[in-house]
What does this fold into?
Amino acid sequence: MSAKIAAPRGTFDILPEQSAQRALVEQAARELLEGAGYARIETPAFEATELFSRGVGEATDIVQKEMYSFDDGGGRSLTLRPEGTAPVCRAYVEHGMHKLPAPVKLYYFGPFFRAERPQKGRYREFWQIGAEALGSDDPAVDAELIALLHELLRRLGATVRLRLSSLANAQTRAAYRDELAAYLRANEHELSETVRSRIDLNPLRAFDADDLRTQAVMARAPRLIDRLDSEDAEHFAQVRSLLELAGIGYEIDPALVRGLDYYTRTVFEFTSDSLGAQSGVGGGGRYDGLVELIGGPPTPGIGWAAGIERIVLAADLQLPAPQPPQIYVAHEGRRAAAFQLLLELRGAGRRAEMELGGRSLKGQLKHAERLGTRYVAIVEEDGVRLRDRESGAERTLSAEAVVRQVLSV
Ligand code: AMP
It folds into this structure.
């Protein structure tokens, strides 16, 4: 025997039962989002690397160390998509969607790739459901998107908490970055090595530090949320009051820095206490500069993404009972006749299976019982013996009569 080949580290197989759970998540998301006017979009699994280095940001962990990039054979660098927002914005620009009535509301469902250290709830290939609304900076869009993710998680039975913040606009943030970097430099001797090395590159990430001394420094740090200009403060106040109107509870978390550079104004994250270290179920925010950054017209936008594996872990999913075939076609060597009957039954819209495992007649009947089929059609030389397993009744009929009989129930 040859050596076994396992799936790569950080990847997983989606087995039939898991597939059924994920289908429930997908179906709930589809119903909810399409009901709110979001249309499905799918973008390629890989994109030009530049889309992410420019869009997500050179200084982010994703771009610095988590991308699976490769040469396309012609000297152009491609990357397996680590996130969905930049690709959706790329498609928005490429297909001239800015000419459509705003906001353009889109959602997606598919696999994403990040070279992260695998652990429970963190994989190298994972799936996300995401929603984006492009072309409007109305705070009601922010509130609507947050309410949609909140409702999706509620319908799926996940208990979550919502953290909310505002990251202001690019100018305010640049001034704040300088202020924060100066503060970090003044307290450098108390910071962890990683944070110290990132003061210039990405000082906001210091809020994410696990190190206790760094956390103590960050607890006293100046806060971006206290530096919002009047327009951003007003936008944030509107979003909050709409969430309150919707009865959605939230905590303001001034340290909420999402790991992507493109965010402006509203940012949010839903977490679940049942997930352990990787507690983020889904999150997102506004990215008013992103479309322009990747070559489109100035366009406000906002969106979120939620991890399917984490939703499944956090949710309480009630799987519907699998539907057994209605009829099992048994035979002892009469393969062609059995196959023809199978096709007729299926053609008539019945869920039908036939014997394919080389079992004895007794074994076939046992198998039909295991599957839970009501009818077994035993193909014999002079007709088809139709057994109703529910009543125990049995009669020999023609193939056509079997189809008619099964159709009549
Ligand atoms: P992000 O794009 O980083 O904001 O992630 C959005 C959501 O995707 C997170 O809240 C997680 O639910 C999920 N997610 C992100 N990275 C991973 C990963 N490596 N493995 C599994 N789920 C992930």
